[in-house]
Give the backbone structure.
Amino acid sequence: MSIGKDTIATLIPHAGAMCLLDEVTRWDDLSVSALSRTHRDEGSPLRVEGGVSTWCAIEYAVQAMAVHGALVGAVEGKPRSGYLVSLRNVECFASRMDDLEGDLAIEARQLMGDADRVMYAFSLRVGDREVLKGNATVILDPEGAK
């Protein structure tokens, strides 16, 4: 069952143009798959000096992590803010994303998690081309929904 942008926006704390995911295509207890076309959007809030750096793909991964937590009920009082506290083993395979044709496919797999923090492995691709991969840890805001 696919989930569209309007529903995604109700599940994560990111709003307006900063809600970067267009569709969640699959999820289970430990992983999520999503698609986005916003990396090519001329009005992207991530666009600087005419382009979107591939390092911005980390934000796409973190949003996939957030929507996964909401979908599996791991985050109470959603949408809940979090703080990215660690990135590990990040590898970048392109300098820009805005010039990549095709949808950006985001995959995130939970490695560990509890009510206070989560760690995921993530990878992003456009077609068969890997764009970025790594691991991210997020500390969840103890104050709940923002």
The helical segments are 5-11, 57-71. Residues 3-145 form a domain with the Thiol Ester Dehydrase; Chain A fold (CATH 3.10.129.10). The radius of gyration is 14 Å.
